[in-house]
Design brief:
By secondary structure, this protein is α+β, with helices and mostly antiparallel strands. Helix content is 17%, strand content 30%. The protein has 3 domains: 192 residues, Galactose-binding domain-like (Jelly Rolls, Sandwich); 86 residues, Immunoglobulins (Immunoglobulin-like, Sandwich), CATH 2.60.40; 279 residues, Glycosidases (TIM Barrel, Alpha-Beta Barrel). The strands form 7 sheets. An 8-stranded parallel barrel has the order 23-24-25-26-27-28-29-30, surrounded by 4 helices. A 7-stranded antiparallel sheet has the order 13-14-17-16-15-18-19, with no helix packed on it. It is globular, with a radius of gyration of 25 Å.
Length: 593
């Protein structure tokens, strides 16, 4: 059938290939980092597209003439789209869209005036679940895959003076080769659910700027990478430390090390410093804390001092907003962690919003940040590995200056197979290449043959994560006693998940499932045992809030994981909240190790 046949698109199953070839990755990422932006948040027009007709029929190339002037019928009209706020998750906008998985076309018009000659304009997207493709004035810009990491697209040549049409196609289908794959245990929200903006930058700009306290805590290293391989000079200023450096830049890379005479960042004293990086006409402003993180035997040390990580896991989920995460909500969850006596959160099971780590820096909380290499990823598929490593690199590039982030998580509950070992050991190596200043960990399963904390991946990790639910999925705690007695790890262990479901208000004595009473007793039994083992360096209770997941469909769950210490309203506390707070307060005192 000829390509100019009006029905050609009905028979073309290779319609997406030309666009996928234009996907970008971490190498194209441009952080906002305090730069002024032109916000594109607000109302867009959204048309759902279950059958990918938008790509097949090239909706982006259609003009905007009204239907009364069409010479041929069409299946798409921009103005017929649903006015939709961005950021948002389409699942919560209409009841009939709740479980929609497919594509959606977002359109808005932007009035623009070109800047000086040489100006670069970057489209910055905080996140779109899962794949996205962008078009400006009918021309393809590029795309991205990975549902929780940011991406940047250069739109300099496509924007024109006056009115411009911007379209972003987003699709959230679950797929065996994606990261995560189709079998997950949280809700599959879709849409443009984080902020979108345009950055106006000079022809050569700062692509990456880092500052980190070196091991030993006596020196700070500042590093800069430019967008072009130029030889020039950059400036770094930290007024409160009396630092004013001229940094030679060779081939686009610059680095300088100076003595550190300031106060270290810690959970008890989260000291931050204003830092300005400048090169030519570009400037990046940061607030950065300086601390060291390391392991020694089975201990985790912050600034050379052993610390016990007491905290919870948390999903990015809200009754009204879905996966949209506001700063107000972040501060609420952190207040709850502080009231629990916690100093630590595991951000499950994907990169959370950028301001999570920034607020944690301010409030003095430690974070495990991870990518969704979750359960049965296609470990033998090269595209799956490329997707996972790119998400890891994008997460690291975004959050590398956050003192609160102490650990990069590279996986969760993956069976110990040869393919998985190859896949995840390469991820661990990639994490260290991208950032050697933090720990690398993964949430592992136990060795069921020897009943020990043992995983071949541990050789490549700094911290061994342990997910275990003795007393919940297994009726009693004898298995936990056996596991702890049999194990003698040489690296720190963080119990990265443990918990029990409880429906708020459901009560009952003894081991009655889904009661608040058993959830509370579960933690008494768990923490008493775990805290007595010196190699347990941290505990992350599963979890802070109840959250949506369609896997859970008993009369108690009704589409929610009920293991939260607080109900999904983020207000109603269960009995276990107060019990765990007491146990955390006692951990480290005589009698509880």
């Amino acid at each position: 059938m000829a390509a100019d046949d009006p029905f050609h698109h009905l028979h073309d199953e290779d319609y997406a290939r030309p666009y996928v070839a234009g996907f970008v990755g971490a190498g194209s990422y441009v952080p906002v980092n305090g730069r002024p932006v032109v916000s594109l948040d607000g109302d867009w027009l959204l048309t759902l597209d279950l059958f990918d007709e938008g790509l097949r029929q090239k909706w982006f190339a259609l003009d905007e003439t009204p239907p009364s002037q069409w010479s041929h019928p069409r299946d798409y009209e921009i103005e017929a789209g649903e006015p939709t706020p961005v950021p948002s998750c389409w699942n919560l906008l209409k009841p009939e869209w709740t479980h929609f998985e497919g594509a959606g076309w977002y359109t808005r018009h932007v009035d623009w005036q070109r800047g000086p000659a040489g100006e670069r304009v970057i489209l910055s997207v905080g996140a779109a679940n899962y794949a996205a493709m962008a078009f400006v004035n009918g021309r393809y810009v590029g795309g991205h895959r990975g549902g929780s990491t940011p991406f940047s697209l250069d739109v300099t040549e496509l924007l024109q003076d006056g009115r411009n049409r911007l379209q972003i196609m987003v699709e959230n289908r679950r797929c065996p080769t994606r990261v995560p794959m189709q079998h997950i245990d949280w809700f599959n929200y879709g849409g443009l659910y984080r902020e979108i903006s345009l950055l106006r930058l000079p022809a050569t700009f700062i692509r990456e700027a880092r500052a980190a306290l070196l091991p030993g805590g006596q020196e700070v290293r500042f590093s800069i990478q430019l967008s072009e391989a130029q030889d020039t000079t950059a400036q770094v200023s930290v007024p409160e430390l009396g630092v004013a450096l001229s940094v030679p830049v060779c081939g686009g890379l610059g680095e300088a090390t100076v003595p550190f005479a300031g106060q270290r960042w810690s959970p008890d004293a989260p000291r931050l410093y204003d830092i300005q990086f400048a090169c030519g006409a570009d400037q990046v402003n940061e607030r950065i804390g300086f601390r060291t993180i390391e392991t020694r035997g089975t201990d985790i040390l912050v600034n050379g001092e052993t610390i016990r990580l007491k905290g919870v896991c948390v999903h990015e989920d809200d009754l009204a907003l879905g996966k949209v995460s506001t700063e107000e909500d972040v501060r609420r969850r952190f207040r709850h962690v502080k009231e629990l006596g916690g100093n630590f959160l595991r951000l499950s099971h994907y990169p959370h919003h950028e301001h999570v780590a920034r607020v944690a820096d301010e409030m003095g909380l430690l974070l495990w940040a991870e990518i969704p290499v979750y359960w049965a990823i296609a470990f033998d598929h090269p595209d799956t590995y490329a997707d996972a490593e790119n998400q890891l690199r994008e997460l690291i590039m975004r959050d590398v200056n956050r003192a609160s982030v102490i650990l990069w998580g590279i996986g969760n509950e993956n069976a110990d197979t040869d393919a998985r070992l190859s896949f995840m050991s390469r991820l661990a190596q990639a994490a260290r290449r991208a950032d050697s200043s933090r720990l690398v960990g993964a949430a592992c399963l136990i060795n069921r043959e020897t009943f020990t904390i043992e995983d071949r991946l541990a050789e490549y990790l700094d911290v061994i994560g342990l997910n275990e639910y003795f007393g919940w999925y297994e009726p009693n705690f004898s298995g936990l006693d056996r596991l702890l007695a049999n194990s003698s790890p040489t690296k720190p262990v963080i119990v990265s998940e443990t918990g029990a479901d409880a429906l708020p208000g459901h009560r009952g004595a003894g081991r009655v499932l889904f009661t608040e009473d058993w959830q509370a007793e579960f933690y008494r039994q768990q923490i008493t045992r775990l805290a007595a083992k010196p190699y347990v360096a941290g505990i992350a209770a599963w979890l802070l809030y109840d959250f949506r997941t369609e896997r859970r469909q008993t009369g108690f769950q009704k589409g929610f994981n009920r293991k939260g210490l607080i109900a999904e309203d983020k207000t109603t506390r269960k009995l276990a909240f107060a019990v765990l707070a007491e146990l955390f307060a006692e951990w480290g005192t005589p009698g509880l190790s």
